[in-house]
Structures are given as structure tokens and as C-alpha cells.
Design a protein that fits this description.
Blueprint (H helix, E strand, L loop, with lengths): L2 H9 L4 H12 L1 H7 L2 H10 L6 H6 L6 H6 L27 E5 L2 E7 L26 H10 L5 E6 L7 H12 L6 E5 L2 H4 L6 H7 L5 E5 L9 H12 L3 E8 L7 H13 L3 E7 L13 H11 L10 E6 L4 E5 L4 E4 L3 E5 L5 E5 L9 H8 L4 H20 L1
Parallel strand pairs: 2-3, 3-4, 4-5, 5-6, 6-7, 7-8
Antiparallel strand pairs: 1-2, 8-9, 10-11, 11-12
The structure holds iron/sulfur cluster.
């Protein structure tokens, strides 16, 4: 057993009784009495397992703060209103076990059933933590599917957390994927740098360099997660040549505040992590109390865009319920758009006008447009001319 596995086993909290004792010792008996009712929390614990690493515990500064909310179970997890079990219908787009193939040129490959800490808002809580639902024995049909589907050029390893696998198993996966010529990019979706930074070992960093290009999408939701240990782990990954991005989930009571988000994005960039997405929290049963409004997300993006460098502004997306995929959302900047001009407001609310080009637009769009099933601009112009002529005719006669 490696050192990080020992740390995980010996220093994490994984029962409600341990949690109650920990809270009593650190925050006082009153807090434990008030917050950790072991019997009342039992059904939430049975629904979705709990483990909180030493690093995640250290990020909790006080009862009820942003990190407490992400990891400490509550009875609110039992209140189901609009939530569904598989809110993104990932299983509906799963041609073989462990693979979700939704987008044209990329596929999700679930390689690990477990995480270091379990986030109470997890979208995949129906599977995560259960080795029977994400089986380590089902790799073969997944590799075969990926090899047969030559359109897939980007594979996202996920789970659970792929970094919970041993280096040997990860290397085996990398080797198998690199043996498939059409797979260009390997991405690892992992929250390990926040939950268990010691997992990013020198041995892993040496091994991974043989399989580039490798990207890692980290997951940080609050600036307080960027501890010195997390930042050092990110530094090791960067030095190993891994391109780092971050996926953040918009969570009520955790980061639904423009100042918190701005600080998070700045801290990420300082650690050489490019903010990639802010997701609306999914409509997942058990995690609904974390949801806030879409307006709040737009307000946050508006508070970032223009007010800080573009590098610090991720895309704000909703992963469409039922399997529609990620849809980007932007605050409304355009006030009017026609063939002559575009009227819009800038980040400060000041109005500006951009003149459309007068010369004919080169006829390069229709072919591209046909393949993407969109209406080319020229066709839109022609339609408008016809509409104007029609209106004139009816007005005249
Ligand atoms: S690390 Fe990711 S997969 Fe694991 S519990 Fe948290 S959100 Fe879910």
C-alpha cells in the first residue's frame, strides 16, 4: 500500500459516529449535538456514502461554511422535489458499460468507482462509491468500443475519481488508449488536488509524461480549497506537462457570490489552472438544496466579464437535463442585430454600435453551414430582402 493510500485509510472520516466525535472535538459538543444527529442522518448516509479526507476536513474553518456544506451530510438530501436519479441521462447514452458517448468526437470513460472525499451535491451519486455500478472488470468492452469508433478523438476519464486508481492501473489505461490511433487527447476529470493532494506523487508525474497530450480538469468550488498542499500538487502536475483546467459547480451557500467566484478564478490562475466551466448544479435527487437560479449564474458571469482578465472567465453552462449536453449561457449584451449594424452594451452598461461590413460576404458559409445545420448569413439576408419586398407589396396593394 502506498503512502497516499495509507493516509486515505487512516486519516479520513467515513462513519457518522466518527464525524460526530470529530465535530464535538473540534467545534464543541453543542455543535455536534445540533448538527450531527446520527440517527436522522443515517438514511442520507445509506443513500450516498460519506468519506472526508484530512485535507477536506482542514478546509472546513467553521460549522456551516462553504466546505462544511460540500462534505457534511444533511437531512435535506432526503427532500426530493424536481430531482431525478440520472438527471443527465448518462445511462441512456451508454452503448457499453462504463462508456457514455453523447458528443460527436469524444466519449466519457468511467474508470473508477470511488473518490477520496464524497461531495454531497455529486451528479453521479447514483453510481459513485459503488464498485458494482462502475465496474473495474468492464474495461474490455469499453476499449473495444473506443477502438471501433474512429470518430472519437478525445476520451475523458472519470468515475468517481480516476486518480484513486494505482499508477499501474492508470498506466495500463493510458497504454491501451494510446494504442488506439484515432484517440488524440486523454483528459482526466479529477478532484484529487483538492481532496488528497499527496496522491500526485513524483512517480505518477514521471509516468504520465509518456502519454501526452494529457489534460486534467480539476474541480474547485471555493478559493479556500486552494491550500498550499493543493497548489503544490497542481504545480507538480504542471511541471509534468499536464494542461490544467477547472470545472466549478455553482452551489447555493458555497460560491453563489461574485466576489467568491472572482477570488476563486484568480487563485486558480495563480496556480496555473485555467477556469474552464461554471456549471449550474444539476437537478439531481439528493442535491437539490444546492441549486440556485440561472439568473445568479448570469449575474456572476456579468461580474467577471470585462471586470477581470478574460483568462479568469470560464464558460457558464447548463448540462441540459435528459441528456441534451452542455449549453453555454451568456448575459444579454446584444440589444439589436440587423444586416447593417449591431447595437450592444459593454461590461459597464454603455451602449455601442458596430457596423456590419458593406461588401458582399464571401460565399464560404453555405457548405460549412450545411454540415452544421445552421442558416448561413447570406441566406438570412436573402430571406430578409424577400420579406421586405413582400411587406412593401402588401403595403402598396
Ligand atoms: S469528486 Fe466528483 S465524482 Fe467524486 S463525489 Fe465529488 S463530484 Fe462526485
Amino acid at each position: 500500500m502506498s503512502d497516499w493510500q495509507k493516509t486515505l485509510r487512516d486519516d479520513s472520516i467515513s462513519t457518522l459516529e466518527q464525524l460526530r466525535s470529530y465535530v464535538a472535538e473540534r467545534f464543541g459538543e453543542d455543535a455536534a449535538e445540533r448538527e450531527i444527529d446520527v440517527e436522522a442522518l443515517r438514511p442520507a448516509f445509506d443513500n450516498f456514502q460519506m468519506r472526508i479526507t484530512r485535507e477536506s476536513l482542514s478546509q472546513i474553518r467553521e460549522v456551516g461554511d462553504a466546505n462544511w456544506q460540500q462534505f457534511i451530510p444533511t437531512v435535506q438530501e432526503l427532500e426530493v422535489v424536481d430531482g431525478v436519479i440520472d438527471s443527465l441521462d448518462e445511462d441512456g447514452d451508454s452503448p457499453v458499460p462504463n462508456i457514455t458517448h453523447r458528443y460527436p468526437d469524444r466519449a466519457l470513460f468511467l474508470v473508477s468507482p470511488v473518490c477520496a472525499s464524497y461531495c454531497r451535491f455529486c451528479t453521479r451519486r447514483r453510481k459513485v462509491g459503488d464498485p458494482e455500478k462502475i465496474s473495474l472488470k468492464e474495461y474490455e468492452s469499453a476499449f473495444q468500443y473506443l477502438a471501433e469508433h474512429t470518430e472519437i478523438r478525445d476520451v475523458i476519464l472519470s468515475g468517481g475519481d480516476p486518480m484513486m486508481l494505482s499508477d499501474q492501473r492508470l498506466e495500463y489505461i493510458f497504454q491501451r488508449l494510446r494504442a488506439i490511433p484515432h484517440i488524440e487527447i486523454i483528459r482526466i476529470g479529477s478532484r484529487i488536488t483538492s481532496h488528497l493532494p499527496e496522491r500526485v506523487t513524483p512517480e505518477f508525474c514521471e509516468m504520465v509524461q509518456k502519454y501526452h497530450p494529457i489534460f486534467m480538469n480539476t474541480h474547485f468550488n471555493h478559493p479556500s480549497e486552494l491550500t498550499p498542499a493543493a497548489v503544490a500538487a497542481l504545480d507538480r502536475l504542471s511541471r509534468a506537462g499536464i494542461s490544467l483546467g477547472c470545472q466549478t459547480v455553482l452551489l447555493k451557500g458555497v460560491n453563489d457570490d461574485p466576489h467568491v467566484m472572482m477570488k476563486l478564478m484568480h487563485e486558480l490562475l495563480k496556480a496555473r489552472v485555467r477556469p474552464y466551466y461554471i456549471y449550474m448544479a444539476d437537478q439531481v435527487a439528493g442535491g437539490e438544496h444546492f441549486r440556485t437560479t440561472v439568473q445568479k449564474g448570469l449575474e456572476i458571469i456579468q461580474a467577471l466579464r470585462g471586470w477581470t482578465s478574460g483568462l479568469a472567465v470560464p464558460q457558464f453552462v447548463i448540462d441540459a437535463p435528459g441528456g441534451g449536453g452542455k449549453v453555454p449561457l451568456l448575459p444579454e449584451y446584444v440589444e439589436e442585430i440587423n444586416d447593417d449594424e449591431v447595437v450592444f452594451r459593454n461590461f459597464e452598461g454603455k451602449q455601442f454600435t458596430y457596423k456590419q461590413p458593406r461588401q458582399p460576404v464571401p460565399d464560404v458559409m453555405p457548405g460549412i453551414a450545411a454540415t452544421h445545420d445552421v442558416v448561413p448569413i447570406e441566406a438570412g439576408k436573402a430571406a430578409k430582402k424577400k420579406r421586405v419586398a413582400r411587406n412593401r407589396k402588401s403595403a402598396n396593394g
